[in-house]
Structures are given as structure tokens and as C-alpha cells.
Amino acid sequence: MRPSLFSDENPVAQLVLTIITCLSCLFLSVSLGSLLSYLFYHVPPADLQSELENAQNVPLQKFFQLVQGVGFFMIPPLILGKVFSGSSTGYLKLNNVPSVGRFSLVFLIVLFAIPVVNLIAGLNSMIRLPQSMSDIQNYIDQTSKTYQTITESFMKVNTLQGLASNLLIVAIIPALGEEFLFRGVLQRIFSNWTRNVHWGILISSFVFSAIHMEFYGFFPRWILGIMFGYFLIWSGSLWLPILAHFLNNAIAVITYYLISNGLIKENMADIGSTTDFLPFTIICCLFTGAGIYLLYKKKNSF
Q1: CA angle 215, 219, 225 (to 5 degrees)
Q2: Which residues contact 217 (CB under 8 A, 6 or more apart)?
Q3: Residues 6 or more apart in contact with residue 138 via CB below 8 angstroms
Q4: What letter would DSSP give residue 92?
Q5: What is the reported pTM?
Q6: Tens digit of pLDDT for each residue in 68-115?
Q7: Which of 14, 66, 19, 20 is nearest to 40 (CA)?
Q8: Rounded distance, CA 166 to CA 155, Å?
Q9: Are the beta carbons of 237 and 97 closer than 8 angstroms?
Q10: Distance separating alpha carbons of residues 72 and 177, to the nearest angstrom
């Protein structure tokens, strides 16, 4: 029997259809988000972009991010999984639920990796473009400041309801949607295209980081994407990278909540990002590496 046009044997056709599907869903989700923003928040479509960049209009930002998270990241992979294999859950490797041992090990890996990721982010923030590219550097700096301002206003909540809302929008939806798309779909496509699973992980993780359009967070996000990619390969289940992604984002949400309520110091959000924490970060790096090695070695025995 000849393989269908969109089978794994034809990754180029799969990639083209993935791009078309994602762009179509992005257009529909933005259109729906604009309409609902007008109905519920009385924001005209012409003013939507400026209001989304307004650090004071947090409810609109959260609402729009929720709509886009579902419309752009979650729905396309489910459609593509059905088209490519006839089963969304099967294609996305959601049928295989890992053992408690694997979940526990991934939890510890993510926990110990936080200072390491923060250190990489700190080093990333020190990168400067040549003087000849000063206009691009200024744009990056300004965009980064705007992003930081919006993030702080977005994450700063003082109630349990606000915490639950942030966990949904920042942790649960991205963990599901982004893992569906980047690990579940794109990693598989690029692995088949290059005929090398390692290249598939590197390329899909690069796209994963680049699409966030945050220069000073590019390298830590790329490394996290690579780690999530290997979690999928070693377990045969998308639930492990989903858990890791959720934990990474949820810890950040909870940390901001604790800081906002004065329960921990503000510098706890950046633990490991400076040389002041270097000995602690090195220890965490060793534990992270040991956990990853153990997960790799035991990949067939959990």
C-alpha cells in the first residue's frame, strides 16, 4: 500500500501542512480574540495591539493569551495528528502514561535545573551585538524592557484566584499546547526529515525558543526544549515533557506569587543567575546531570 501524502515518509508535506494549519488557526484565534475583546473589554480592533502592550491592562492580556494558547498551540496539533495518522492521541504519544518513578525523577530534574537555567539566562543577557548593529541592539533592549514590564504586571497577583488564573494561562495551557506542537509534531517531522532524532530535537527546540521572540531568553529556552525533547524520546510519552514544561512554568508563577505577597525575597526569582550563587549552581548542575543520566540509563526499565 502506498503511503499517504501526509505520512511520516513525507516530512516536507507534513511541515508545509503544519505551517498552513498553524497560520490558519493563528488567524482564526486572533480574529476570535479581537471580537471577544471588543465584546467583553470594549477594546476596538484598531486599539487592540496598543492595549496588549499596556502593562495596566492585565485582564485583557491574560484573556487574549488564553485564546491564542488554545487556538494556536493546542488545536493545530490535534488536527494534524488526526490527518497524519488517524489518531491525535496516538500520533502525539499521549496513550503511553509513564510510571510514577519517571514522573518523580523528572520533577527532581526540573527542580535542580532552575538555578542552572537562570545562570544561562544571566549569561544570555550579557550578549551584545557589534556596534555596527546598534539599531538592532537598541530594539532588542527596548523589547526586552517592555516584555519584562508586562511579565511583572502579568505575574504579580495577591489572591489565590489570581494564582490559579496564572497557573492556567502560564503553566497548564503552554505545557500542553507547546509540547503538542513542538515535541509532538515538529520534533517528529524534523527527525524524519533529517533521519536523525538528535537533529530533530535541536531544530524543533530552536524553533520553540525563536517563536517566543525573546532574545535574552533564547538560550535557556532552547536548552529546556532540548531537554524536553529527550524526555519524549527516552520515555515514548509526551506526558513527561508536558510535566517538565508545566513544572518549569508553575515554579516561576508560584515564585512571583510568593514575592508579591512578601513571603520570600525578590532575588529568589533569579537564584543562580549571578556568580554569588555559583557553588550552589554547580551542585544543582551535577544533580541535574545525574538525574538526566539516570533517566537515560533506565529508559527501558521503569
Answers
A1: 115
A2: 121, 124, 209
A3: none
A4: T
A5: 0.93
A6: 999 999 999 999 999 999 999 999 999 989 989 999 999 999 999 999
A7: 66
A8: 7
A9: yes
A10: 8
